[in-house]
Write a structure and sequence with these properties.
globular, Alpha-Beta Plaits, alpha+beta
Amino acid sequence: MSSNPTPITTSPQRIFIDRFVVPERSSAEFFERMNINRQLLKTLTGFVEDQAYIRNDDQGNLVCITVAVWETDEAIANAREKVQAEYRKEGFNMVAMLERLGITMSERGIYVRQ
């Protein structure tokens, strides 16, 4: 007997998931920036909804998972462009902020609902 894996749905919605490990000392600035980003995303075409989840790890860091649901892959691509344009306008560098605060992004991916 062979078992077939459950097929992935063909739903056009895409779920963009990031996972960050945030030292406690960096949490205030990280969450301030996260909230700015979340508010921006909510204004973009193709945005459906978002959530953020946190927990503490064994080392006292915060682990934060953000989940943004988009209508399509194209909506994600357009959102990336808009976010990067906004960062340039603000003079904000996400990579530099993460490095300065000792934050690691341990996962980034696009998923579909099953």
